[in-house]
Amino acid sequence: MLEQIITDFAKCRLLVIGDLIADEFVYGRIARISREAPVMILEYEKTQLLPGGAANAAANIAALGGKVTICGFLGKDRSGRALNLSLKQLGVVCKLVTVPGYVTPTKTRILAGSAHSTRQQVIRIDREPKATPGFEFLDRLRSEVAATVNTVDAVVVSDYNYGAIGDDVVTLLRDVDRRVPVLVDSRHRLKLFAGVTAATPNHAELEELLKREVFSEEEVVCAGKQLREELGLKALLLTRGSEGMSLFLPDGSATKFDAVGSLDPVDVTGAGDTVMAAFALAIAAGATFKDAANIANHAGGIVVMKRATATVTQAELLESVRRECRWR
Description:
By secondary structure, the protein is an alpha/beta fold.
């Protein structure tokens, strides 16, 4: 059953709306300690710039075999140009609005190590837009979304609070939800999307939204049910790191999915985007929420074992699902 759903990803058309982020990784070998200050001097090796945020969600949908269009903002800067090129090379249809003076959100991670060791992150430098794009650009983005939503099987909202999702887009999405599923991953603003089909917060976001700490399994179940009901969602998929995931549905059920694979992740960068991509594709392919959550759990378990901002392929996901079936 799960295998057929994953195979059907190729028939699905998705729209991703949200904040595109450039995930930049700068690698260096530790050469010596500086005489100027007690810091490492790195011998530069390479720079890697990968799609992050909404761009990572779109990249994962493409890698999993789905057809995907992305709408969002880019700046007229190096990161914006690199993201646009990278997405097009992956087969993503780009309906992006370029905004003069807008800084494409860029997260630069410096990774260091000795000649024969794995490079580890030592610092991260964030470059962020100082202001939301003006009304003219927000209106252009809304027009791109409105022109596309009726041609897709599901909509993914990837909101990192950098300004791509304005009130007019939220209003449009509430109307769209009557025709196609709308699935939301939102940093700090999930309550704005009350009434959409589904959402995928992580544990920290759950605590932030409910304004209390959540520890035991009983507390997680109670909190998940409360948040789903408050937001009026058809499904809430809570991502919990090494604890796996929990799915909450309107019938009051709470289904726990144990983490797939190793409990010691190599790199969790962008894992939430991968989970959302697989979850949305499965829903678009006609899966139940439980089957979609199971598939998303496998995708998350695969991607956290890869370094940097990574994607999961359809072949990798099929193999993970088959492996689980063999173990039963």
